[in-house]
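A note from the maintainers: we've had questions about how concatenated examples are separated. There is no special marker in the raw files; a new sequence line simply starts the next protein. For clarity in this README we add a label.
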Amino acid sequence: MEQRTVTAEINVRSIQDTASLAEWLASRAFPGALLALDGDLGAGKTTLSQAFAAALGVPGIVNSPTFTIIKEYRGSSLPLYHMDVYRVTLEEADELGLDEYFYGEGVTIVEWASIIDELLPPQRLDIYIEHMGGELRRIRLAGSGEPYAEWCEEWNRMGATTK
């Protein structure tokens, strides 16, 4: 059976708008959920990750794990596995045992996910953040498989945008 993919697009005008989207996504999170983030340097991947972590109840500061590659956090509702694969090759990433995270007890966020696309589970939410100047960002969601396709459908039904 072919996997269903549904897309949605959001325009955000502030960090608070990005945080609102992250909170909405975090409210739907479940063990094994995967958010695959991409976008230009400085587009807001870490900002979205930080807001998502806060919504999961992760205490303290959440930084991009650029040099450590993977950071694990305990949230009040679910663990969060935050990855930044910008500085690894596909071969190096393959040796990290990422499946343990992808299919684990927590939610995984991967920044620069396209670098390891071949290693990612096919069911996931791809998030591409595009810097449009100033605080304006365009965020494109692509939900592949369930429940991610449903999330995008729900967002589209709500007519959700922060124009």
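[label: protein 2]
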Amino acid sequence: MNKVAIKNILAPVDFSDPGVRALTYAAQMANLFDATVLMAYVIEPVPMPAELSMASVYEPDLEDRALERLALISETHFADCHRETPIILHGHPGTELVKCASTQAIDLIVLGTHGYSGIKHLLLGSTAEYVVRSSPCPVLTIRHDE
């Protein structure tokens, strides 16, 4: 049996409790495998009616604020890890995270999940579910217990 080699870990962050909790697992996995961590935040476009605009609209300073928070979280959670500069992606979170995993040669995604079911799942969707189904690499999901 071949040994599992994990060199690059993608740690998506949405600044929620489940997302931040998953970073503890990402840090432990990075230390265990001596892997490099890449944190990513996805900015979703603001929905606009078609008659008002055809372009995606983003809050202008959101990216700067997100990068500041990512830098702080990176220092807090990944101080003892190899880490890349956090990145900002734009678009649908699941789609962008899967693309990122492919283009960045990611070996493992560590992702927090809210654990919604029923109507909440239908209304809010599930980024974690999409990533698990579409990812080119293994995904470790960390369920948040309230």
